[in-house]
Amino acid sequence: MNRRFATVLGLAALALAAASFVLLGFGRMLVGYRTALVVAAPVGTLAFALGLGLAALAALGRVGVGPLAVEE
Hints:
The protein is mainly alpha-helical. The chain has one domain. Helices cover 82% and strands 0% of the residues. The chain has two helices and no strands. Helix 1 packs antiparallel against helix 2 (33-63). It is elongated and about 50 Å long.
């Protein structure tokens, strides 16, 4: 995995988090709050998991163990 791919994954996590908020907002206007929450929650969870995984990869890369190792 190179840094460009990690950057794209980070932007995807940001886009998923924004999509989760948009889904929740529009969902509350169209259907009830609970239904909107059921629709938006998986997207938000996916964004959180992707961000958490990228943070772990970055930490491992900073230490020098992971695939994003810093070359000095």
